[in-house]
Write a structure and sequence with these properties.
542 residues; alpha+beta; 17 helices; globular; 4-stranded antiparallel β-sheet
Length: 542
């Protein structure tokens, strides 16, 4: 409430606050209630989406610049819609502050913010979300500095003349565990049941009325941030993001989304999740955080300090000399006929706590940790090399490659001959994943962190025993949240009806009932996006 009082007194406009709250709680827009779309005519609207990710190699090591990570963009996406709308034509819009309504239907939440362009300040008026608030503040600060105060004020005035700014945030169902939804309907835990659920299904509420959310590890905070940053930039005309996207507009979205995400998290992570949301499937090496330290400090700023911050932010985002952002993003895709499956494991892990545990262990046991670190880094590059070899074979003769993949899809890997080029490369990828899993288990045991718990080891091993399964492992930082599998689908680009895919989904769906104490595993609908079409990263939907 202190921010509300400061805002009202600083502009001498308590009536603006009252107006915004009346608008927010007016008929059809009560927090948590359904919105009457007919009461909110839309004048200008854009929608931008970004993909969820699965880190198949590089967990923990990706925090250091010299190490790579292989991240696969999924077909499940997060959507941000930004539009101009008005609740009632009879109500007069404030000319001093912009009213921003943010709706998150899946979380049964709405938030109201005000933006004063003269003070360059976003204020939470009713409800708050740190990722949304930081996004609004930094994007508006950048737009104000980049476009110039007069031009940006004119853009906001055009919005205000018609109504208010409204934002809607929604994600495909795979981002959140749907097991409670399936149980409430007495449906089996299976991919076919997930296909029956309505799109953008709101999360279930517990007996206490609180929203019950279990994430599946697709990077919802990074995809929210990226899609919202990109949608705001598109709304105000700085990027297009339709069809083939320019390197410049992707760089703009990436740089600003990284800074927003770091500021919202209160730390500088590896950045791979935002990079995946922007660029899609890739081989990634992180950026150096040092150039951005001053931008990430949270402190109250006076007018002169705010102006200096805006200049620093704009310089960091535009990076005209290309000497600030030194991350490596190498576009990548899985070879044809190899797809990724993801299972939602009903366990639960605290990834930040796990990361702290591993990093604390490494600091206290430098020699032992470095030996494992080095071995794991070598193994990750070995996996990349095997996947690249498959690409070479595919490029050399696509028909022969497809035939070889079809043959592999029907046999357990233990029975494959070692003299075929495709089989050999797939066997090398399999061996690399097995070695990476061994290193991750050793690291977890040494650090006292369950990176691959025994229950996950059993599930991964059983999955890898199926014909056509190249590898199965826990993604990212590990734990009890998910399992991924790399599956040969017989050379077909579309894997929806592959017998191998069906076998994996059946194993996972039946896992809990197959023996006492086994966790519930729900096969998700996500597949690896096809980077060949250039659309598996951030893109405009509208």
């Amino acid at each position: 409430m202190s921010g509300l009082i400061l805002f009202a007194s600083s502009v001498g406009a308590l009536e603006i606050v009252r107006y915004m709250l009346r608008e927010f709680h007016g008929e059809g827009s009560v927090r948590g209630a359904k919105t009457d779309e007919a009461a909110r005519p839309t004048f200008h609207e854009v929608t931008v989406s970004s993909p969820g990710k699965v880190l198949i190699a590089g967990g923990y090591l990706i925090l250091e610049k010299e190490n790579l990570g292989i991240t696969v963009a999924g077909t499940s996406r997060f959507y941000a819609t930004v539009r101009t709308s008005v609740h009632s034509s009879s109500q007069k819009q404030s000319q001093t502050a912009l009213c921003i309504v943010v709706r998150s239907p899946q979380f049964h939440e709405s938030y109201l913010y005000g933006y004063n362009v003269d003070a360059d300040q976003i204020f939470a008026m009713d409800g708050d979300n740190v990722f949304v608030a930081k996004c609004l503040q930094l994007v508006f600060t950048f737009l104000r500095a980049h476009s110039g105060l007069a031009a940006f004020r004119a853009q906001l005035a055009a919005v205000q003349a018609k109504g208010r700014l409204e934002i809607v945030l929604q994600a495909d169902n795979d981002f959140y565990s749907q097991n409670e939804q399936l149980q409430s309907r007495s449906w089996p835990v299976s991919a076919s049941s997930l296909r029956r659920l309505p799109r953008f299904l709101p999360c279930a509420k517990g007996a206490d009325g609180k929203v019950s959310v279990a994430k599946t590890g697709l990077g919802s905070s990074a995809t929210l941030t990226t899609s919202l940053v990109a949608a705001l930039l598109r709304f105000f005309g700085l990027v297009d993001l339709r069809g083939a996207k320019s390197a410049e507009e992707l760089r703009l979205v990436h740089n600003l989304a990284q800074l927003v995400h770091c500021r919202a998290q209160g730390k500088v992570g590896s950045g791979f999740d935002v990079a995946s949301a922007v660029y899609g499937t890739q081989v990634y090496q992180r950026f150096s955080p040092a150039p951005f330290a001053a931008l990430l400090e949270e402190q109250a700023l006076g007018a002169d300090e705010q102006a200096a911050f805006a200049r620093q932010l704009t310089a960091a985002v535009l990076d005209h000399r290309r000497d600030l952002w030194d991350q490596v993003v190498q576009p990548f895709r899985l070879p044809r006929g190899l797809t990724l499956l993801l299972g939602d494991v009903c366990g639960g892990s605290n990834s930040p706590a796990m990361a702290r545990g591993v990093l604390d262990w490494r600091k206290a046991n430098a020699t032992e940790a470095q030996a494992l670190w080095t071995q794991l880094a070598t193994t990750n590059r070995r996996l990349l090399s095997a996947l690249q070899q498959l690409h070479h074979l595919e490029d050399a003769d696509a028909d022969v490659f497809a035939e070889a993949m079809a043959a592999v899809a029907t046999q357990p890997f233990a029975a494959l001959p070692g003299d075929g080029s495709v089989a050999t490369a797939l066997g090398e990828a399999r061996a690399a994943v097995l070695e990476a899993r061994r290193c991750m288990r050793a690291m977890g045991q040494a650090a006292g962190v369950e990176i691959e718990p025994a229950a996950q080891t059993e599930l991964c091993d059983a999955t890898m025993a199926l014909p056509g399964v190249v590898a199965a492992a826990v993604p990212g930082a590990g734990g009890n949240d998910a399992i991924f599998a790399l599956v040969v689908t017989g050379g077909a680009a579309a894997a929806a009806t592959s017998a191998t895919v069906e076998a994996v989904e059946r194993l996972w769906a039946d896992w809990a009932a197959s023996a006492p104490g086994r966790p519930v595993v729900c096969p998700l609908l996500l597949r690896a996006s096809d980077a060949a079409d250039g659309l598996d990263g951030v893109r405009a939907e509208l």
